Amino acid sequence: MRLSELLSCLPFYEMTGPAFDPVIQSISHHHQDVNPGALFIALKGGRADGKDFIDQAILNGAVAILCDRDFTLPIPVVQVSNLRQALAQITNLFYEYPSYNMNVIGVTGTNGKTTVSHMIESVISQEGEQTGVIGTLYMKQGNHTKKALNTTPDNLLLQQTLLDFLSQKVTTAIIEVSSHGLAQGRMFGCDVDIAVFTNLTQDHLDYHGSMDHYKWSKSLLFSQLGHQHFTNYPKFAIINNDDPFSATISQSTSAHIISYGLTEQSDVYASNVHFGRHDTSFTVHTPIGSTSIGIPVVGVFNVYNALAAISTAVAKKISLSDIAKGLSTLPSVPGRFELVEAKQTFTVIVDYAHTPDSLRNVLQAIAMMKAKRIFVVVGCGGDRDRTKRPLMAKVACDNATDVIFTSDNPRSESPTAIIKDMEQGVVGCRYTVLPDRREAIEFAINQAAIDDVILIAGKGHEKVQIIGDQTLPFDDKKVAYEILTKSNNSLLANE
Ligand SMILES: CC(=O)N[C@H]1[C@@H](OP(=O)(O)OP(=O)(O)OC[C@H]2O[C@@H](n3ccc(=O)[nH]c3=O)[C@H](O)[C@@H]2O)O[C@H](CO)[C@@H](O)[C@@H]1O[C@H](C)C(=O)N[C@@H](C)C(=O)N[C@H](CCC(=O)O)C(=O)O
Ligand SMILES: Nc1ncnc2c1ncn2[C@@H]1O[C@H](COP(=O)(O)OP(=O)(O)OP(=O)(O)O)[C@@H](O)[C@H]1O
Ligand SMILES: N[C@H](CCC[C@H](N)C(=O)O)C(=O)O
Ligand SMILES: [Mg+2]
């Protein structure tokens, strides 16, 4: 495609540099990805400025630059005033509007995005639909997965991935949409059809600065649904009615709303909820009828997650029997309430709870297991919201009998300084401090006895620990298993 054709989607721009109209073979915003024939987008970010890489991009073969500043260069320079919007429009045109040619479901909220995305996937695939999932764990189509740096990919990678999905005959894409992604316009130009809201509690204040900014970012997914009601894929907003923030979200969209919750005031609601040790059952009532649901996961929060998935399926006109089947056969989601089994007499759970609310929810689910003692091994991420640290520590103390404070991913911060921040939230609570995460897990395992439960919180599926500028292999599940089998073997040796 010629540069001039690509620019036809922009209402205004200025061009400088040589007057020729190169063929654009690819688009990139990172100089290392630039191939001959590329249009290089010089974005100013939080850490780097794309303008500093223009020379290298040209050396790598860039034939034109798109930017929001004035440069004199030996290749055409296109200057726009709203670069992130222009990038979205240009990539959409270049990739032939992939999101307009499939059903796109966006899931947002503080907690539960990954879980709900997988529940939706499980339900939709009952009807034989090809699905693609984009989120924290991976970008996944069928059994093919690709690891990504971000939960919500940048605009370019998002469009490329959706195009890739289309070529694999995907008809529904399920995208986990983070508040960072929304605030940075990573979703611009992505035609979402069904927007799902899980819940909103404190997180990411390091980035957003205030809860108001965090809430505003989340609401963008709903306002950006647009006003088209007669498209191939009708627009729906799926909203958790029991969350106080829902009222604001309802006001920010003109799409059809399906509300869900635990009372009859919602369009989709659950009754007769029964919690087993490893599963949960309930009756769901929807505008298309009622049915019994069984899910192989525990906790009130997972009832909410299932209701979000059921409401999405109702919007997609999926039958109640397929909804029930999809949820009952839900594959386990890596690092979410995962059991570590090494024939020990107590329960060990690895879970990704890394916010005050998710930690409280997961510990309350554990309380229903009627354990003798509940151990929690928990830390807080460095270079992330400092104000959630004391809150998470308090939740740990309020909901567990044995509390071990340790390191999560300290990143550039001192592990002991992070733990000191956590300690500010607890008074009159006995706890142990072991900054080395392996030692902390080992300590809990050595203390635990029959019928106790250990929760190893915060890192879930993660396979590394980031300490300073080092990224070291570390997998909570593997570490716990190694320690459990070592202690089992030493018990056998002593018998
Ligand atoms: C703070 C933040 O969100 N940063 C995101 C942002 O980076 P940035 O704007 O700072 O980019 P930058 O590194 O300054 O680079 C600026 C420009 O120079 C270019 N560049 C840069 C370096 C170079 O050598 N060459 C080069 O060309 C870059 O391609 C870019 O176009 O834009 C990048 C592309 O979209 C993201 O990858 C990056 O996420 C970083 C890695 C990150 O850690 N983000 C986290 C906080 C995040 O976004 N998390 C949410 C999930 C949160 C949750 O819900 O739990 C997520 O969606 O992942
Ligand atoms: N609906 C929910 N409400 C509160 N906590 C939840 C909910 N669903 C899951 N959790 C807890 O939060 C943790 C993370 O869940 P999940 O990965 O689904 O959330 P997420 O929103 O994708 O998180 P992230 O923002 O890191 O991508 C789980 O391990 C569980 O402890
Ligand atoms: N998406 C979240 C993940 C946090 C996971 C936790 N293990 C940490 O490192 O703080 C973030 O980047 O804030
Ligand atoms: Mg996630």
From TrEMBL:
Mur ligase N-terminal catalytic domain residues: 31-95
SUPFAM superfamilies per record: MurD-like peptide ligases, catalytic domain, MurD-like peptide ligases, peptide-binding domain, MurE/MurF N-terminal domain
Record GO terms (molecular function): UDP-N-acetylmuramoylalanyl-D-glutamate-2,6-diaminopimelate ligase activity
Annotated residues for binding of ATP: G109, T110, N111, G112, K113, T114, T115
Keywords for this protein: ATP-binding, Cell cycle, Cell division, Cell shape, Cell wall biogenesis/degradation, Cytoplasm, Ligase, Magnesium, Nucleotide-binding, Peptidoglycan synthesis
Family matches, as InterPro entries: Folylpolyglutamate_synth_CS, Mur-like_cat_sf, Mur_ligase_C, Mur_ligase_C_dom_sf, Mur_ligase_cen, Mur_ligase_N, MurE/MurF_N, UDP-N-AcMur-Glu-dNH2Pim_ligase
Residue ranges annotated as motif Meso-diaminopimelate recognition motif: 408-411
One Pfam family it belongs to: Mur_ligase_M
Modified residues (N6-carboxylysine): K218
Catalysis: reaction(s): UDP-N-acetyl-alpha-D-muramoyl-L-alanyl-D-glutamate + meso-2,6-diaminopimelate + ATP = UDP-N-acetyl-alpha-D-muramoyl-L-alanyl-gamma-D-glutamyl-meso-2,6-diaminopimelate + ADP + phosphate + H(+)
Family annotation (Gene3D superfamilies): Mur ligase, C-terminal domain, Mur-like, catalytic domain, MurE/MurF, N-terminal domain
Binding site for UDP-N-acetyl-alpha-D-muramoyl-L-alanyl-D-glutamate: N150, T151, T152, S178, Q184, R186
PTM entry text: Carboxylation is probably crucial for Mg(2+) binding and, consequently, for the gamma-phosphate positioning of ATP.
Compartments, as annotated in UniProt: Cytoplasm
EC number assigned by the record: 6.3.2.13
Chain ranges of the Mur ligase central domain: 107-312
Mur ligase C-terminal domain ranges (all copies): 335-460
Cofactor(s) required, per the database record: Mg(2+)
Highest taxon, organism lineage: Bacteria
Pathway: Cell wall biogenesis; peptidoglycan biosynthesis
Binding site for meso-2,6-diaminopimelate: R384, D408, N409, P410, R411, G458, E462
NCBIfam families in the cross-refs: murE, PRK00139.1-2, PRK00139.1-4
Family note: Belongs to the MurCDEF family. MurE subfamily.
Purpose of the protein: Catalyzes the addition of meso-diaminopimelic acid to the nucleotide precursor UDP-N-acetylmuramoyl-L-alanyl-D-glutamate (UMAG) in the biosynthesis of bacterial cell-wall peptidoglycan.
Protein name per its UniProtKB record: UDP-N-acetylmuramoyl-L-alanyl-D-glutamate--2,6-diaminopimelate ligase
Organism: Jeotgalibacillus marinus
Gene field: murE
